[in-house]
Each structure stands twice: as C-alpha cells, then as structure tokens.
Amino acid sequence: MEIHSHIDEQLETDLLVIGAGIAGISTALETAETGFKVILLEKEPFVGGRVSQLNQYFPKLCPPSCGLEINVRRLKDNTNIELITLCEVTNIEGSPGSFTVTVNQKARFVNNRCTTCGDCVPVCPVERDNSFNFNINKTKAIYINHENAYPQKYAIDPNVCLGETCSECVKVCKYAAIDLQQSSRQIQIKTKSIVWATGWNPYDANKLEYLGYGKYPEVISNMMFERYSAPNGPTKGKIIVPGTNKEVDKIAFVQCAGSRDELHLEYCSSICCLASMKQAQYVREQYPNAEIHIFYIDLRAQGLLEDFYTKTKLDDKIYFHRGKVAKVFKNGTDGQLVVEAENTLEGKLHQMKFDMVVLATGMQPNVPEIGVQVNPVFDENGFLIPDNELGYIGCGVCTGPKEVATVVQESTGAALKAIHQIKGGK
Ligand SMILES: Cc1cc2nc3c(=O)[nH]c(=O)nc-3n(C[C@H](O)[C@H](O)[C@H](O)COP(=O)(O)OP(=O)(O)OC[C@H]3O[C@@H](n4cnc5c(N)ncnc54)[C@H](O)[C@@H]3O)c2cc1C
C-alpha cells in the first residue's frame, strides 16, 4: 500500500471510535469483544472524559474509579482495540463501509518505558494550569492527571515546557522514557464505520458574571465543586470556601445557571438538579451542621433517580427554594455573598447570605470543535443528529445531555449499529 508523503502511518480497522470517555470506551469494548477491530481515538493524553473528574457518581454514589477501572482493564486486555491518544480528526472522506479518516497526533514526549515513578516532576522548573482541576491549581510541565490515569505514563505540555535547552527531566529519568524531539504525526485510518463519542464541555461560567463567577472566588461551577470534593482533587477532597479557605457554614446551589435561558443555553441539561443534590450530600458528609440551600426553577429527576430526590428532600439541613436566581453580589458591609431570587411560590423577592455559591452549569456538546461539516448533522444546540445513511453514529452526551447509565445503554446501541455497518448493512 502506497503511503502518501505527508502521512506518517496508515492503519486499517473495522470501527473508529472518536472520544474515549465512558461512551467511547463502552462502544469500543462492546464492538471489540464481539471480534471486530477497533481504533479508539482520544484528544487528551488520558482516557475517561468528564466522568474521571467526578468525585462520585449517582445513582450509587461510587467513585469514578469503580466503573472506569474495570473498563480500562478490559481495554488493556483486549488485543482488538488500539488506543491512540492526543489525536484529533482533521478530515473524513467516504461513506459507510469505506471511510478514510485523517488524524493529527500531537507529541506526548514520553514513551511506554515510563513507570510513573515521578522522579521527573520535582526537577521540572515550570508550571502549567491544571486543566483537569479546572485551573484551581497547577502541575509541572510534565504531568499525569491522577494516580490511576490511563495510559499510565506522564505527558509533557509543550506550551510551557522549556524543551531541550532545559532537559532536566531527561537527565533524571532512569528509564530513557522522555524524548523531547518527538513531533506531531499524521495518521490515515481506513475504517468501515465511525462512532462519535466526543461528549461535552461545561458551559462557560465566565459568561455568568451576573451570578458572581469570575468576580468572587467563592462562586464556583458544579464541575469545580466535583474537583474540590474528590480525594484526587486540588484540596485532596476537603471542601473549603475558595478564596478564604474557611470551612463551609452556609452554601447555595444555583440551578439552571445559564440553562433554559435564551441568552445562554436554551435547553435543560437534565442532570444538573441531581448533580446538585449529590453535591449537597458531599457537603453533609463533611459538615453535618452546614446549611445547604438549593435555588431552582423546577426540579428534574428522571426515572429511578426520583428516589434520590425523595431522600434529599427529607434532609432537614437541605432547603429547596423555588425561584430563578437574578443575581449574586457581595454585601458592602460584611463582604458576604448575597443570592437574590424571586420565590415564585410566594411571589416575593428574597436575599440570603452565603459563604459559598455553586453554579449548576449545563453540558455543551463538543462535536462542532472537530471541524467536520456542521450542516445537517447537528441540531440547533450543536448536538449530533445520528444519521445512519451518512454514517454518523453517535452516543453519549455529544448526541444530547444524559447521565452515565443512559450513556452506557446508548453505547451498546451504537456498537450494534456499527457492527451492522461493518457487515455491509445500510
Ligand atoms: C456537575 C456534573 C455532575 C455529574 N454527575 C453525574 C453523576 O453523578 N452520575 C451520572 O451518571 N452522570 C453525571 N454527570 C453526567 C456525566 O458526566 C456524563 O453523562 C458523561 O460524562 C458522558 O460521557 P461521554 O463519554 O458522553 O462524554 P465525556 O465524558 O465528555 O467524554 C468524551 C471524551 O471524548 C474526548 N473528545 C472530545 N472531542 C474529541 C475529539 N475531537 N477527538 C477525540 N476525542 C475527543 C474527550 O476528551 C473525552 O475524553 C454529571 C455532569 C455534570 C455536569
């Protein structure tokens, strides 16, 4: 097979899965375990997507390692799956049964000899914002997201690394695992089927200045709160009031922060109410006497998760207030945060003081960033509309907001559709 000059590697597979969050990993496993070849692409240096950033996940409130570790073991053991990280699709040609996909792979600068001993970290002289922790803290230029991150090898951020002029990490590495000369590569993949599983990004809370985000450090987003609560997070799981580092006494959760709002996200992300109720439990565990107030337009807890809501409602330290929050500001005299909301049951405007506010921001689809033809495969909010004829199979949050259990079911469906395509079906 002739390799075009600017293509560094050519690969062939039955299925290409784009995105290695819970959706992509599940689809890849389901397909590979029935005997088909799968290439799983991930744009980040590590797999797991947003679930790996959660502290615990409902309905059982288990840590993400619970589900992800089992899946990662299945991934490692399955010789039908090739995982390629730091990759983004730059072009797709063809149709179901015969696609040609071009992929750009960024350099990791660390090879498979890495044992994650960590000797390279203290000698690295530069730092980067820790995007895994939503920039709450920093890592060195050479980093790993958390101790169980997969693949189990460090990565180097080229945006801050001083390169070969420094080489301190290279000098100290006993395993010759660091190669600062690595460069990006073009890979061409021939595949019979493609599944999109590119997930979501949190809605940009910087657009919610009226709710105090970006103005007051004590106002954070729900995903930041997951990181503050997680044992592998920036505070090792201790929930503290950002900015003051004090213990939490009275905390507000602002629902629909930028959701169901035509100026921001028009749709409901469906999981934010449950996520805040879950996060209220995190607070309860660490601060049994803290007051927790949840401000909502209307509470949405789907299916079996209604039980979760019923349990939360019985908690005498968790207060529900019906009313959309109009603004969050600081009181001029005592400097405390004030949440102003109209209680729509009473028709009265209320102001309440808090030491910390968590904005329940929604999930925004990640697909358009890929740069493939937008029309007609995305809906008006940017979610992928699966189209079997064009060959757009999708699963997970890139096709619409949903929780993990539904994502996994949808991934099984995506695997079946892919197998149908691989076998020549339309
Ligand atoms: C605050 C909050 C709390 C939540 N808590 C829970 C909970 O307790 N229980 C629950 O069930 N659900 C919860 N959810 C929802 C849950 O996070 C999602 O259902 C889940 O992340 C969806 O997984 P996914 O694989 O579709 O997407 P993601 O987790 O976003 O994974 C997508 C993957 O694709 C990769 N990717 C993106 N673009 C590309 C590209 N161009 N090329 C290659 N790779 C790419 C990403 O890097 C990522 O690894 C919560 C959501 C929020 C906002």
User: What's the domain count?
Assistant: 2
Annotation, overall tally of beta strands: 21
The portion of residues assigned to helices is: 10-25%
Text of the CATH class of the largest domain: Alpha Beta
Radius of gyration: 23 Å
CATH architecture of the largest domain: 3-Layer(bba) Sandwich
The rough form would be described as globular
Q: Low-confidence parts lasting 5 or more residues at pLDDT below 50?
A: none
Overall structural class, as computed from helix and strand content, comes to alpha/beta
Distance, first to last CA: 28 Å
Q: State which percent range the strand residues make up.
A: 25-35%
Characterize the biggest β-sheet: 7 strands, mixed
CATH superfamily descriptor of the largest domain = FAD/NAD(P)-binding domain
Bound molecules: flavin-adenine dinucleotide
Order of helices and strands: EHEHEEEHEEEEHEEEHEHEHEEEEEEEH
- In the CATH scheme, what's the topology name of the largest domain? FAD/NAD(P)-binding domain
Mean pLDDT metric:
92
Helical element count?
8
Task: List the SSEs and their pairings.
Blueprint: E1 9-18, H1 22-32, E2 38-41, H2 64-77, E3 81-84, E4 87-95, E5 98-105, H3 120-123, E6 127-129, E7 138-140, E8 142-143, E9 155-156, H4 168-172, E10 185-196, E11 200-202, E12 219-221, H5 222-229, E13 250-254, H6 272-286, E14 291-296, H7 306-313, E15 318-322, E16 325-330, E17 337-343, E18 348-354, E19 356-359, E20 363-365, E21 393-394, H8 404-422
Helix pairs in contact: 1-2, 1-8, 5-6
Flavin-adenine dinucleotide binds next to helix 1, helix 5, helix 6 and helix 8.
